[in-house]
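Please fill in the sequence for the structure shown.

STRUCTURE ENCODING:
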């Protein structure tokens, strides 16, 4: 089976490519390399270009018999999306429209979509299920919700089948230590705190200390990137076997505060981490924790690396291997 992975050189995409290869799938990647890293891709065919380029997509679908698509390519920074909504509408929504049109033109009707907990906004329930009201608090989450709705409309119009996976906070790195989380500039909590441990940053700024949470800092549900990938493989199988669309949350069902994450990094690395409470970041919901019961029951998903300690250990191994990102080992 040949799978097209959009955004395959990104953080989650590159882990997905590796898992697909380990399971003997043929993999074709489209990535603009604007955010992605060519060095993170192992043994697969890469087309460099923008998803909004319909001609490039025609070339990809003509040169390869694509059986299914896993769609990661998107901008994904909550704070940036609030400050600059236009690029999120263009890069996330318009790209998806061009991709879906190309799929229909080339008789490809299966897509697994990288959605997000950000579609829910700021729910008040302890464990967020898929039936929770969707009410995004930032542009990023709104674009992910619109992309899901587009797939629904393409299902009605053309028979496209999709699985939207709404993930909570992807974290950690492949156990090989050879690929991991690299953003440029770094924006995500765990790699930033690890940079403090490496001495590359003086301290971690904690965005807000007076949220109504156990210690005043935001609570998130951290899920290992390899566990996310195993859910995508199951979603592909689900589309092959059941030929129906569905939506699943992916998380561990346990919330950790920002301070707990920083403390865990201290414990794993054995290095004291300087921290400072600063202004809240726009668009940040106080608490996001998943119920993934549905994915467990219907997809048979069983996360393996669900301890925060293990997640941080794998991220730390990668960081020590690539302290300056992929370019300079
Ligand atoms: N945080 C800090 N300081 C930092 C960076 C982050 O305090 O320097 C805090 C954030 O405020 C947040 C938590 O750490 O409370 C995690 O922040 P990240 O930036 O690592 O991740 P987000 O929760 O903002 O976003 C992630 C993904 C999104 C996805 C979202 C869903 O990046 O794509 O999870 O929950 F939508």
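FILLED IN BY: designer on duty
SEQUENCE:
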């Amino acid at each position: 089976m040949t799978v097209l992975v959009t955004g395959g050189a990104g953080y989650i995409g590159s882990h997905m490519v590796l898992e697909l290869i380990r399971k003997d799938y043929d993999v074709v990647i489209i990535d603009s390399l604007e955010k992605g890293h060519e060095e993170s891709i192992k043994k697969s065919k890469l087309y460099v270009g923008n998803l909004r380029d319909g001609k490039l997509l025609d070339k990809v679908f003509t040169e390869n018999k694509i059986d299914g698509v896993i769609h990661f390519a998107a901008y994904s920074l909550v704070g940036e999306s609030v400050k600059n909504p236009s690029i999120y509408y263009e890069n996330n929504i318009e790209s998806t429209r061009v991709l879906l049109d190309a799929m229909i033109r080339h008789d490809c009707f299966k897509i697994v979509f990288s959605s997000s907990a950000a579609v829910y906004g700021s729910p008040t329930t302890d464990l967020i299920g898929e039936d929770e009201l969707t009410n995004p608090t930032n542009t990023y989450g709104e674009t992910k919700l619109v992309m899901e709705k587009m797939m629904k409309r393409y299902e009605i119009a053309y028979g496209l089948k999709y699985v939207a996976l709404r993930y909570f906070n992807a974290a950690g790195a492949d156990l090989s230590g050879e690929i991991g989380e690299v953003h440029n500039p770094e924006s995500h909590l765990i790699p930033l705190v690890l940079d403090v441990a490496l001495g590359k940053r003086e301290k971690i700024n904690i965005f807000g200390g007076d949220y109504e949470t156990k210690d005043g800092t935001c609570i998130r549900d951290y899920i290992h990137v390899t566990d996310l990938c195993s859910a995508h493989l199951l979603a592909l199988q689900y589309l092959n076997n059941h030929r129906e669309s569905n939506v699943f949350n992916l998380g561990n069902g346990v919330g950790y505060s920002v301070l707990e994450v920083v403390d865990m990094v201290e414990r794993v690395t054995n290095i004291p981490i300087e921290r400072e409470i600063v202004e809240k970041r726009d668009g940040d919901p106080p608490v996001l924790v998943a119920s993934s019961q549905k994915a467990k029951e219907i997809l048979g998903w069983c996360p393996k690396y669900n301890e925060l300690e293990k997640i941080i250990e794998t991220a730390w191994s990668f960081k020590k291997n690539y302290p300056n990102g992929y370019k300079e080992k």
